[in-house]
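Exercise 7.
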Amino acid sequence: MPVPGVPILEGLYPSTLDLYPFEAKEFNRIHQFYENLRQKRFTTTKCKKCGNVPFPPRVVCPQCNSEDLEWVDLPTQGKVLRFTEEVAGVPLGFESPLIHALIDLGVGRKLISRVINCKEGQLKEGDTVKLAVYDVPPMIIEKRGGVMEEAPRVFFAFEPVK
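Solution. The predicted structure, written as tokens, is:
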């Protein structure tokens, strides 16, 4: 079964350099995060014991070590506080410019994320960005009985609000 990949590798995806996690329930205890992303929901976990809301999502609260967590929605828009544009030396599989930004989601939440669908020099501090969910190359996983199955995957970035 062919796996999509970067053009210079003639469609072969370099799984040894895979930067994206296994999202299947069989391999990932926060698989619900990726299922929510597929529905365009940006979520994380909240501790029911102490109220801590870490990002990225956790299976154990980093404050009190409780495993009693629930899923909560995060804002899907934010403001760019700082950013960097990488135009040379971009890693294999990524296009130039590779933009990363510190984004303020409000509600006391900041995170660093890729910014996509943005040309070099276009992004400014203070710009509003919104959640963008995109497909990444699927993983081939072996199910019970030796059955090979393609597991689709998604990941998130942000993009400028136009």
